[in-house]
Amino acid sequence: MKTSKIPEATIIRLSVYSRFLTQVDQRGVVTISSGEIAEGVGVSPAQVRKDLAYFGEFGTRGVGYNVKDLHRHIMKILGLNTHWPVVIIGAGNLGTALSMYGGFRERGFKIVGIFDNDPQKVGYKLNGVMVYALNDLEKVMKEENVQIGIVAVPAHHAQEVANILVETGISAILNFAPKVINVPKNVEMRNVDLTVNLEILTFNLGLSKDKH
Amino acid sequence: MKTSKIPEATIIRLSVYSRFLTQVDQRGVVTISSGEIAEGVGVSPAQVRKDLAYFGEFGTRGVGYNVKDLHRHIMKILGLNTHWPVVIIGAGNLGTALSMYGGFRERGFKIVGIFDNDPQKVGYKLNGVMVYALNDLEKVMKEENVQIGIVAVPAHHAQEVANILVETGISAILNFAPKVINVPKNVEMRNVDLTVNLEILTFNLGLSKDKH
């Protein structure tokens, strides 16, 4: 895992701030204070200022932040001032669901191909996205200048698929298979653990039970 | 959002520690130090000790933690010393993918029903899980003692489905729709944002580009 001085929690909050700023901007608001951002997203004003301070000086004391400027700046920090072509490996239910997930498109991620070895799927379109054979991965990645791959295959195929992505020159992998996969240090890797979200809920259910 | 003194990041790490302890236990290890846990999961030993200290005294100075005891204790903290029946609303690709996600079962979450109003799906089984009409939600929730519901419908139906879950007496909702939904304060809510994971990757890709 790469270490940088910016905590991951800050990056996640920047993503939340930018969504909130999009809404605020659409309502025609021109300037906003850290307190208003804090209230809008449910963190403390000090946290907002601390998160933004990692990236230099923003805003004017007593006036606040210009909404459009701050939004543009955060999007640039997140690397979202550009479009990212993405490939998905696995045309099963999860791969299909991810290919049509509206949240990706909204933030500039475009699924340019789904890869699978099932001959009943290859050559057909899923929600407007072509399903290719894995053999075509290198060709599509080059043509579309793809740096990000999503692994959406069963756990027992995850490492094998990650190896293929690495050999084909991927820069970053998002792994949805509930299995740890290993990649070289120069490849960015992130495991999405869907279960941990349920565990935060059960922890909180325990807390609220204790209260009553 | 409910506020408690335990940071959410700590809960997420407890979940990671418990998975690591499961593996360590399976290898027959009896005691483990905070340093070994730290190395195994990629955080600092001080962080491990700080996270565990929220929940009282563990371990023996100079000896470390008993693996089985610590694992059992963390699972109890997370509310995972019991099985949780879960319903999924939406029998589309995402609902189907979630119903067969192996990670849920491993941690004691059991999908007891998928609910949808599509007559072509109701009455059939998906990966061994029955698809019911939404009208049957109350009956199934009572019979199976369900407290947790997963929203896996398109964004424009998410609020409507959340309202139905709330009216039926759900305690906690995990929302996969890329849309903020509102629930009463006594219902635990968690939005799963699949896009933020890609944004952490693009942020890190930007960092590594700056380095070269």
E-strand count of chain A: 9
Q: Based on the structure given, which CATH architecture of the largest domain in chain A is correct?
A: 3-Layer(aba) Sandwich
Residue-averaged pLDDT of chain A: 90
- What is the CATH third-level topology name of the largest domain in chain A? Rossmann fold
Query: What is the overall number of helices of chain A?
Result: 9
Organism (chains A, B): Metallumcola ferriviriculae
GO molecular function (chains A, B): DNA binding; DNA-binding transcription factor activity
Protein name (chains A, B): Redox-sensing transcriptional repressor Rex
Keywords (chains A, B): Cytoplasm, DNA-binding, NAD, Repressor, Transcription, Transcription regulation
Summarize the SSE layout with pairings:
The structure is a homodimer of 212-residue chains.
Chain A: H1 8-26, E1 31-32, H2 34-41, H3 45-53, E2 65-66, H4 67-77, E3 84-89, H5 93-99, H6 102-106, E4 109-115, E5 125-126, E6 129-132, H7 137-144, E7 148-151, H8 155-167, E8 172-175, E9 188-191, H9 195-211
Parallel strand pairs in A: 3-4, 3-7, 4-6, 7-8, 8-9
Antiparallel strand pairs in A: 1-2, 5-6
Helix pairs in contact in A: 1-4, 2-3
